[in-house]
Write a structure and sequence with these properties.
Elements (H helix, E strand, L loop, with lengths): L13 E6 L8 H10 L3 E6 L9 H8 L2
Parallel strand pairs: 1-2
Helix pairs in contact: 1-2
Length: 65
């Protein structure tokens, strides 16, 4: 019988995601969503320049923090 992959491989893990003022900052929303779906608790830390690309409200809502 094949092994069933763990649907929440990050269950119980705590992650800190740093977001800076580069154009790739918009991808932070996708990362937060994927980390949460995998079971992780995510805290987001943003630089002031990061807010030019994505709002703290967006990341706060997705991370539930």
């Amino acid at each position: 019988m094949p092994d069933v992959p763990d649907p929440r491989p990050l269950e119980g893990r705590r992650l800190l995601l740093g977001v800076t003022g580069g154009i790739a900052a918009y991808k932070a929303a996708l990362l937060v969503r994927l980390f949460k779906k995998a079971g992780a608790e995510v805290q987001v830390l943003m630089t002031p320049d990061a807010t030019r690309f994505i709002t703290p409200l967006t990341l706060g809502t997705l991370s539930e923090r």
